[in-house]
Protein 1
Amino acid sequence: MSNVWTGEGPTRRRRSDRLQISLVIGILLLLEFYLRPSLVEGRGMPDFLLLTLLILCLRLSPGWAAVTGLLVGATIDVLTPARFGANMLVHTLIGYASAWGRAVFFADHVVVAAGLFFAGTWIRNLLVLLLSGAPVARLGAEAVFWGPLQAGSTALVGTAVVILFRDWLAIRIDR
Amino acid sequence: MGGDLVLLVGCLLVGLLAFALPSAWSGAVVSSIRATALAPVVALRARAERDRVARFELAGIQAARDSLALRLQRDSTLLAENAGLRGLLGLAPRLETSWTPAEVLHTPSPTDPRAILLSAGSRAGVAINQPVLTADGLLGVTWTVGPDASTAMTWQHPEFRVSATTRGGKVLGIVGPVIVGASGEPLLELRGVALRDTVPTGAVIVTSGLGGKYPRGIPVGRVIGVTTDPLGYEQLYRIAPFANPGTASHVMILRGTPADSAFRPATPDSLP
């Protein structure tokens, strides 16, 4: 939301804020569940669902970020044949740590936000595989190649989203 | 801060509870959520997969269809001859196997590489323990089934087993997964082969049909080497599988095999 006074009351502005955030989340979910799988398929592609969580974590308190992480993790657990509960645990931790880290380190810089998206994706991938009991070779490949590749693409898209929608998401970004 | 910690601990407890659920229970929970709350998402992903195929793979599918049409025309004489010979011998017509096509719903999130999510469920006639095939060969077997989606255990899963034989049926054994070398390459292994039997490198291994789960003749893989059991009782043949779970996009789920199988339990006697 812009800081310019528009004459609207606080209730109306809150409603407008929610609508704008819902629209951004809707776009990201559409990208995750329809547009990306209908265009391209591969392991290095950006994870828009995790990106939704991380963007929400920039606005939420750590506790509610953990709850959001649990819900996102449950969705991924249901939609992927990984070990049930692994994504719930990992996304809860990622959500809490992201929101807490932002509060502590005051991450209102575009590079820090990109770093958060990168680290969040990479650590999430490794932890999920670790909890799912993946073989060591798969963990190594994820740590060295696939993880950084997906983390990089997610960070790139996330930075673009934050810059494009910074007013809607009410994120203050210094460049 | 205290409230945040309470929420975190609560969420972690829910996650731990889900993590500790036995696989049968978690499978039931996952199937019911997929069939209700996330049914639109599953349908949207299946639609996206179909759209991608229509957009980028149509030429390949048309080429494959044309090749199959040519082959069918060429084999029609053989089919007629076969039917005539079966009639002369008094054999019943060959049993047909019905199948359900399904898309593999890939995801960029890290998943268990030993299982895949499929876009067909019980409404399309899919049931647990049905063979899953690609055009190349055997990929796995259905594991959990919901109304509109199902998961399949691929040949990489530690619990995967299939009774298999060489093309000519001379050597019989059990095929299971094995991790080879320091790089952890997943392969298949033909076990239970007697020391007196030999399977040459390059031989094609197919399902034997024993056990009633997999019909006879589905290609499994090609023999690439042999090792000896540490106890010296048998030879273990390494097999390079034909079907790759990582690149599979469309599969066929064979239906009705267990029910039609000659190995199904006999119907109870009507006499007391």
Note: The radius of gyration of chain A is 17 Å.
Protein 2
Amino acid sequence: MPAAVPVSYYLILSAILFGLGVAGFLFRRNIITVFMSIELMLNAVNLSFIAFSYQLRQVDGHIFAFFVMVVAAAEAAVGLAIILTVFKNRSTLAIDDVSSLNN
Amino acid sequence: MDAFLFFLFAAIAVACGINLVLQTHPISSALSLIGVMGSLAVLYLLLGAEFMAAAQLIVYAGAIMVLFIFVIMLLNAGAERSKSTSLLAKALGIPALLAFLGVIGFLIQALLPNTELVKFGAFTGGTAQAIGRKLFTEYLLPFEVTSVLILIAILGAVVLARKEI
């Protein structure tokens, strides 16, 4: 095993996690799990930002990842409030049953 | 040692990510997501991002996931109804995902052939001091806009949580 891995391995890990997030977003039918898949994608992008920040020896990538984190926190608060409202009105968490905009 | 830690925590992150997608019960998915976030925090530490590693654990694994688990328990969300996913989606989706990952991996290796080796301690610019200095000088305006965003998110959550919606 090598003593250290290049930055590109971190980028490939980031791509794998992002792909898993996309798969979860498309295949799951529970609205909370879909939402968690979005968080997984945001985390994967954060890993890319921090890996590039290491490569370029600049701290700016950390700041971008920090802002992504803030947006994720705001999004989680509003999104979960929307999920609560949907559940209150329709008593279901399956995204196939919440399709009134589809008609 | 750096490579060992990378492969160990990358394997944990990918395993937890796969578990997140495969589990039918939301609480299992949430715990898997916490596993992904924790191992990503270790990888941030390896990349010299000590402030981001701490923020990852406190904000993501702490605050956001507590919110998720709180909502899962509040709604008493049970296991997902096993609805027969269309065979076409499975037959096309999984190869498409693998092909996407193969292309991305090939492109990364082809376009960035000589990226630096990651050694713990080689980059020490990720301290709270360095990030705070950048945040309050160069990125002051985005930082202030962020506070407005948080305020709007609070208002939105309060409006959505009212009784008569």
Note: Residues 27 and 79 of chain A are 19 Å apart (CA to CA).
Protein 3
Amino acid sequence: MQILLVLPLILPLLIGCSALIRFRNIRQTVALICLFLNMLVCLLLLVETHLYGVQVVQSGGVIAPYGISLVVDSLTGVMLAISGIIGFAVGIFSAATIAANHQRFAYYPLFGFLMMGINFAFITGDLFTLYVAFEVMLMASFVLLTVGGERSQIEGGLKYVTLNLISSTIFLIAAGLTYAVAGTLNMAHLAAIMAEQPSPGIGTVLAALFLIAFGIKAAMFPLFFWLPASYHTPPIAVTALFGGLLTKVGIYSMWRVLVMIFPQELAYLQPLILVLAALTMIIGVLGAVAQTEFRRLLSFHIISQIGYLLMAIGLLTVDSMTGAVFFMVHVILAKTALFFVSGLAYELEGTYKLKKLGGLSKRAPGLALLFLFAAFSLAGFPPFSGFWGKLLLIRSGLEIGQYVIVAIALAVSLLTTYSMLKIWTEVFWKPLPKQDTELASPHKRLSPLMLAPVGVLVGLIIAIGVFAEPMYQLSEAAAVGVISPVSYIEAVLLPGTGE
Amino acid sequence: MLLAFAITAGMMFACGVYLMLRRSMVRLIIGLLLISYSVNLIIFSMDDPNTRGAPIIDSVEESAMSDPLPQALILTAIVISFGVLAFTLALGYRATQVAGTDNIDTLQSTDRGT
């Protein structure tokens, strides 16, 4: 079933090609059908890798390490599946909320290119192709962020573009130097070479370069300033997609490149990464507590959650990576759901300012309930998905005696709860402020199309929380696959054994 | 030869960073451009610059062949940076139109949470 591995690239590309179609409705239909198929293919790939091991396609039939390999191992399978689900959910949500004037500028084709870049970054087994995937993703996200041309979008876009280009540049330098050191860019080959002949000096430099490059993309402290400056400016469906997936691609790349290829060189950087993880958590959550705008508050939370994912790299045990993969799935779902909720609050009351919002618990009790579940999950309450991810991370931290980072992670959870409570009291609990009632559209109701994606995501959050065992097993398989990539290397370099 | 490459790439990178730290939008874009060029040079010097034989079997000795892969990488990087530059120029132009100035320091409204 080799065609399956190529479909996550082809289907979004088809959406991109639909830019040639003149009629908006047809473009939208094509996009939604392709996104749905993409989700099915991604889920199928996850099942297949779980049952039959690592799946590989050598593009053009060129044998690895000379050609470009497309590889789906457990981690890629999990990431593809979750991004497929989010892609379809955001697609539906966009159909309901994106204004017609935005759709005129080829909204869905750009969306398709973005999804293609994301899937490409997950699926590629080649370091330079990962750079190309990043560029595809970045170009699409640049345009999605700035299309519409409002002043805030342009300003945010300029910072986003500049810092992400610098990150790409550093990535390119690192990839070039890696080639000079190892003579290959195939990740499996690289992992095998670096394991056999570790080069502590230049290897550590390379690992640090990759850490900076991916750190900018992942919004790691102190490289995150582009994120809160830009993420709240585009239409909310775009923000939800960015907030859910883009920074996580940076974290995925760290796992794939730093943990899989440079594990020995990483040991030197681990204390630094732990400090950065702690600062990312703290600064992110403190930033969130200080905000008075719904989307900006959630944007800062993205940063704070990135800290937890970095913490796993700092601890670097199978347990911590298992927790991080679990946490990754959870945080993508919860974050996207929360951004959806903020968009729906805007639909009802015409503002994102917490002070001017209010009274939604009476007006839209269903929405309030969905928010509460997603927020509890983000804060880490049982029985939601966030609880298990944090539990695994914190337990692995205690096991190897890193008590400081564990204490900080717990304190940050508490602050997360506080800032979620702030949203709850401001947006849902308190009555609608009188002077702003003219902004709100009192007769507007939420269509089922708007509520369905949020409902499904929150349903998944609860399902993962209640039936944690299957998700735990998937995460563990992914973590083991990254930390000791024997099956990955064999499947790519020794064709025939991996099939 | 390698030293010349290293110095040139370093100088270009430094100039790029210097330009990016200025206030003008145009300088920012030129700075980005210079940095991406200097990276191309860095990748170019991955291969030993003294071996410059065409990598065709039987036409040159194997030891004198140059490695074609860095050049292929640079080609890709050049195309990408060309596309990115076009977008950045359009964005910069649009920004000067919307803001009425090309002073980057005045573009702060999204940082402050209006």
Note: The longest helix of chain B spans residues 68-99.
